[in-house]
Amino acid sequence: MTEKVIKSLKVCKDTKIIYGVDEIAEIFRRFSIQRPTPKSDLNYTNVFTLLVAVVLSAQTTDASVNKVTKKLFCLADRPEKMIILGKEGIAHHIRAIGLWRAKAHNVYALCCRLIDQYGGQVPDSREELMTLPGVGRKTANVILNIAFGQPTMAVDTHIFRLGNRLGFASGKTPGEVEEKLVKIIPDCYLQYAHHWLILHGRYICKARKVECVQCIIADLCKATIKTNAVPAPLVEVKGNGAPVFF
Ligand code: SF4
Asked: pLDDT tens digit string along 64-80?
């Protein structure tokens, strides 16, 4: 047994999860085969527009954000240009999404801070990102993961539900779930793990209805809600769409 595996086994024991290290590794191996290179559903052209898109996506679907950012990013793909648009101009373009007033305020304020404190560049540390208006830990983790290639775990509603439902990262807060997931997921899978879990939660292990017949980890899953124990075929799914086997 390698030193790395022994360390992982200890982590599983410490975190009191009901899965063995080999089972966790197998779950993420299958996700990696199903979607080798998952991508964000948000449209963006650079790190700055990714940051703005993620800030705008709070409590709103990615598709709605993409609709409003299409024109906005043509006009303003840098903080300096966004400031020229002004708070009212930003608000005008994002009126179709929820919380648009507060989001317009935050986008304007974060542009001011980027220029004042960071030379117009998006910083690459969690601490600095979280000083920006409208940027919490989850948003910072998304930026670090997608833009800077850091193996962070941005816990959204799907990941929070899966961590608790499947029992491999139960916690009362997103922070607790994040901490456990980062500990138990093998390093080689961490980069894409949050995408895989979000997509699995969106299409298969949904909040109200679980699609266990379509689930590639049905044999490994230990959720009490599970309705089937035969795994769906492990084949690659193109893009971020739903896998449908039966
Ligand atoms: S088997 Fe069912 S409950 Fe378990 S992960 Fe798959 S969809 Fe969710």
From this structure: 999 999 999 999 999 99
